[in-house]
Amino acid sequence: MIGIKEILLVVNPIAGDIDKKEMVEDFKAIAARINTEVFIYHTKGERDIEHVKNIAKERKPVRIVAAGGDGTIKLVAEAIRGMDITLGIIPSGSANALALNLNLPKNLEEQINVALGEHYLNIDLISLNDELGLHMSDLGINAELIDNYESSSFRGKFGYLLQTIPTLIQSKYPFEFIIETENCTTTENGVLLAIANASKYGTGAKVNPKGKLDDGIFEILIFKNLDILEIMKTLRNEVNLSPEFLKILQLKKARISCKEPVAFQIDGEYRGEVNTVDVKILSEKIKIAVPEKD
Ligand SMILES: Nc1ncnc2c1ncn2[C@@H]1O[C@H](COP(=O)(O)OP(=O)(O)OP(=O)(O)O)[C@@H](O)[C@H]1O
């Protein structure tokens, strides 16, 4: 472990509907063993990026750790853009897709040791309509499902499952996506277009076998309008997708347009209906603490 003086721990108190007290106590105990102080910021749900950015600038922690789900990691990543600081993750949300893609351990003590350890991955950042994306964003049926999930009172996998049928009934799929790249323009019909930095959705479904978080490119995945129930099952139930369902493009920059507005989500956070998404790989990266490779 490195000689850390002060760690900034950003805790989302509502993430995953989990009480974080025990986690915070364990975190402080492990930090004390390496002679470090812990400064805790509890997210408020409003202006958190700004607050975390100001605290990080003022206190100059040598490590920042996000305890929450994918939304919390994303907001901390936004806050520390341009700062040379490694981000540790304690996965404690209802969706922990990035943690899954980074092979973070399941055990809390191991998670804390990894979050404070010296191994890191320098992962790519994707700009989507000027907002940061770290792992998986999409247009279409999955974003519609996330919208329905966010407006319902049920959380976790069961919450998603409950929303599947209403989403399918209400959806206007298939969608027509126009994809402009530096070399060509193509039109594709599909139920879902994903913009992927990672290989897996949070359920464990490995939809993007070519996805590497640090390879300097992203993939566009177009899920064809074949068997929609099969696709929904695949996204939610850890079944690997057969390649005939999907077309994959590897890119650094693209514009995706739809004639009619289509539901859009970034890293599991619903962003409303849009007609256009401008996507590019940013030149900056972010260091995320990961386990030592075997
Ligand atoms: N104190 C708070 N009160 C209400 N909302 C909050 C609070 N702190 C953070 N948030 C919101 O929590 C969301 C991020 O949650 P995150 O993804 O980390 O956890 P999650 O359990 O996976 O969430 P979800 O179940 O909604 O997907 C952000 O939208 C953020 O604005």
UniProtKB/TrEMBL annotation:
Any one GO MF annotation of this record: kinase activity
Alphabetically sorted, this entry's keywords are: ATP-binding, Kinase, Nucleotide-binding, Transferase
Q: Which SMART domains match?
A: DAGKc (SM00046)
Entry keyword annotation includes Kinase: yes
Where on the tree of life does the source sit, at the highest rank? Bacteria
Q: Which residues form the DAGKc domain?
A: 2-132
Keyword Protease applies: no
| Record-given protein name | Diacylglycerol kinase family protein
Species in which this protein is naturally found: Autumnicola edwardsiae
